[in-house]
C-alpha cells in the first residue's frame, strides 16, 4: 500500500488507527461457564490436562489382542493357532489378572477396550480365521507376524497428563470443545464478553418493521454493527436511533459510557451542520485518538476516550460503516474479548476489472473473490457506492486499492480480506 503522510496528528492511517484502538482496549475479566455454553467464548486461562488421554492402553481395532512374540514365526505355510482365552469389551475395567500370565493365547477385543499389560499387538479380525483346538476350544489361526504395538493406542499418547494443550485467548469452537470434554472439564474459564453500546445517530432513522415516513430510512447500521459484534464475541447493547441534536447525543453517550465497556456511534461524524458527534465528545472533554482515517469509504471515522472508555465513531454510509467495522473495530473488539490473535489476514489477488475511482487514500471496495489457476481473482462489484447495500449480497471480500493514481486497472495485483465467512 502506498504510504500517505498524515496531514494532521489526529489523521491516522488504518494501521495507526488500529494500534491506537488496540492499545486503549481493556483486558477482560474472566468467569466460568458450563461446557455446553463454552462454544463462541474465549478461553480465559491456559489449560493443563488433568488426565492422560487416552486414560488407558486401548485397542484401535476390533480383533484379537496377542503377545507379538506368539505370532512371530507365523506364515501361510506355517500358521499359528492361538486359543481365545476370553473377551474384553469397551467399557470393561482394567483388572486383567486372568490374562497376565497366560502365554500363547489371544483375547477377543473391541475398538476402545483396554488392552492387558504384556499384550502388545492387536490383530484385526479380518486378518484371522476362526478354528478349534484339538480339545475343541475356540482358536484363531494367524498366518502372518504382527508388529509390536500395532493397533494399540498407548496411555497418554494423545495428551500426556499435565500437558498444556489449550491456551488463554483461544476462540473456543467445536474442535476445542472436543478437547475440553475429553479432558472431563465441565466448568470452563472464559473471558467475560465485552459489552458494547451501539448508538445509531440521525433524524432520518427509523426502526425496521414500521411503515416508512417521507424522508426517512430504516436503521441498517445499528443492526449490522450489533450483528457483527455478536460474531466477534461481544455483547451489543443496541440503542434506538438518536436524533441529530447536541444534548440528545451527549446524553446517550454518557448513558452508554456508564453502562458499557466501550461505545460505538454511527453517523453524524462528518462536517455537516447537523453532524454533532465531535462537538458532543468535545463538550464531554473526550480525548481524541484520531479524528479522521486515511481510507475511503469512512474517512470521517473517529475515536475518542472518555470516562476511561473507548468510543469509536463510525461513518453513516453503510459501506463506510462496514469498512470501519472490519478494518478497525474488529481488532479492537477481539482484543477486548480476550483474543490473543486478532490481526487482519490480507491475501493477494488480481483484479479482473478496473476500479476507476481515483482516491488520495487507500480505497476499500466490496468485491467477489474466487480461485482460478491457483490464484485469487477479484471481481469488483457494480454499484459499490458508499450509501448502497446491495453489494453486500455478493461480496465475500474487501479489496484494498492503493492510494493515488487513477484507481486500479484490470490485472493489477491487490490485497484483500475475506468477509462474511463463518
Ligand atoms: N461536505 C462534505 N460532505 C460530506 C463529506 C465531506 O468530506 N464533506 N464526507 C462524505 C462522506 S465520504 C461520508 S462517509 C459521509 C459521512 O457522514 P457521517 O458519517 O456523518 O454520516 P451521516 O451524515 O449521518 O450519514 C451518511 C449517510 O448514511 C446514512 N445513514 C446514517 N446512519 C445510518 C444507519 N444507521 N443506517 C442506514 N443508513 C444510515 C444517512 O442517511 C446518510 O445518507 O458524509 C459525506 N458528506
Ligand atoms: O468516504 Mo465516505 O466514507 O462514504 O465515501
Report on this model:
- The protein is of the alpha/beta class and about 425 residues long.
- It folds into four domains: about 5-30 and about 190-335, MoaB/Mog-like domain (Molybdenum Cofactor Biosythetic Enzyme, Chain A); about 30-50 and about 165-190, Molybdopterin biosynthesis moea protein, domain 2 (Alpha-Beta Complex), CATH 3.90.105; about 60-155, Molybdopterin biosynthesis moeA protein, domain 3 (Beta Complex); about 345-420, MoeA, C-terminal, domain IV (Beta-clip, Beta Barrel), CATH 2.40.340.10.
- About 20% of the residues lie in helices and about 30% in strands.
- The protein is elongated.
- Residues about 1-5 have low confidence and may be disordered.
- Ligand LQZAQKY5 binds near residues 205, 220 and 275.
Outline of the structure:
Its EC number is 2.10.1.1. The chain has 422 residues and is α/β, with parallel strands linked by helices. The chain contains 8 helices and 27 strands.
List the helices and strands and how they pair.
Elements: E1 11-12, H1 14-24, E2 30-34, E3 47-48, E4 58-59, E5 63-66, E6 80-88, H2 97-100, E7 105-109, E8 121-124, E9 128-132, E10 138-142, E11 152-153, E12 164-166, H3 174-182, E13 187-191, E14 195-200, E15 205-206, E16 217-218, H4 221-231, E17 235-238, H5 246-259, E18 262-266, H6 277-283, E19 287-290, E20 292-293, E21 302-306, E22 309-314, H7 318-336, E23 347-351, E24 363-372, E25 375-380, H8 391-394, E26 397-401, E27 413-418
Parallel strand pairs: 1-20, 6-7, 14-17, 14-18, 15-16, 18-22, 23-25
Antiparallel strand pairs: 2-13, 3-12, 4-11, 5-7, 5-8, 6-10, 9-10, 19-21, 21-22, 23-27, 24-25, 24-26, 26-27
Bound molecules: ligand LQZAQKY5 and molybdate ion.
Amino acid at each position: 500500500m502506498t504510504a500517505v503522510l498524515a496531514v494532521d496528528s489526529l489523521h491516522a492511517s488504518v494501521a495507526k488507527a488500529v494500534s491506537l484502538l488496540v492499545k486503549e482496549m481493556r483486558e477482560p475479566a474472566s468467569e466460568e461457564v458450563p461446557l455446553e455454553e463454552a462454544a463462541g467464548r474465549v478461553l480465559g486461562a491456559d489449560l493443563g490436562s488433568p488426565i492422560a488421554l487416552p486414560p488407558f492402553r486401548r485397542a484401535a481395532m476390533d480383533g484379537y489382542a496377542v503377545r507379538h512374540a506368539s505370532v512371530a514365526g507365523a506364515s501361510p505355510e506355517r500358521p499359528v493357532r492361538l486359543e481365545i482365552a476370553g473377551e474384553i469389551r469397551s467399557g470393561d475395567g482394567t483388572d486383567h489378572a486372568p490374562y497376565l500370565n497366560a502365554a500363547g493365547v489371544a483375547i477377543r477385543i473391541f475398538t476402545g477396550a483396554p488392552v492387558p499389560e504384556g499384550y502388545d499387538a492387536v490383530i484385526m479380525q479380518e486378518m484371522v480365521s476362526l478354528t478349534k483346538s484339538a480339545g475343541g476350544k475356540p482358536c484363531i489361526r494367524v498366518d502372518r507376524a504382527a508388529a509390536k504395538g500395532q493397533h494399540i493406542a498407548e496411555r497418554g499418547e494423545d495428551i500426556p497428563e499435565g500437558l498444556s494443550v489449550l491456551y488463554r485467548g483461544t476462540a473456543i469452537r467445536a474442535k476445542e470443545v472436543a478437547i475440553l470434554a475429553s479432558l472431563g472439564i465441565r466448568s470452563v474459564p472464559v473471558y467475560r464478553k465485552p459489552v458494547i453500546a451501539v448508538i445509531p445517530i440521525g433524524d432520518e432513522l427509523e426502526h425496521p418493521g414500521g411503515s416508512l415516513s417521507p424522508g426517512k430510512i430504516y436503521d441498517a447500521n445499528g443492526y449490522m454493527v450489533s450483528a457483527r459484534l455478536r460474531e466477534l464475541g461481544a455483547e451489543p447493547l443496541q440503542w434506538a436511533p438518536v436524533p441529530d441534536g447536541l444534548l440528545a447525543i451527549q446524553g446517550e453517550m454518557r448513558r452508554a459510557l456508564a453502562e458499557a465497556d466501550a461505545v460505538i456511534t454511527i453517523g453524524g461524524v462528518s462536517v455537516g451542520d447537523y453532524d454533532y458527534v465531535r462537538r458532543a465528545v468535545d463538550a464531554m472533554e473526550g480525548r481524541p485518538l484520531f479524528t479522521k482515517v486515511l481510507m475511503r469509504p469512512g474517512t470521517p471515522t473517529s475515536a475518542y476516550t472518555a470516562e476511561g472508555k473507548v468510543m469509536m465513531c463510525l461513518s453513516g454510509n453503510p459501506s463506510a460503516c462496514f469498512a470501519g467495522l472490519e478494518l478497525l473495530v474488529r481488532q479492537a473488539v477481539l482484543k477486548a474479548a480476550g483474543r490473543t490473535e486478532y490481526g487482519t489476514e490480507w491475501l493477494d489477488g488480481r483484479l479482473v476489472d478496473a476500479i476507476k475511482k481515483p482516491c488520495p487514500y487507500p480505497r476499500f471496495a466490496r468485491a467477489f473473490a474466487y480461485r482460478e489457476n491457483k490464484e485469487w481473482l477479484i471481481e469488483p462489484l457494480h454499484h459499490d457506492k458508499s450509501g448502497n447495500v446491495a453489494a453486500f449480497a455478493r461480496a465475500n471480500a474487501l479489496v484494498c486499492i492503493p492510494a493515488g493514481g487513477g484507481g486500479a486497472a484490470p490485472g493489477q495485483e491487490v490485497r484483500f480480506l475475506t468477509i462474511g465467512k463463518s
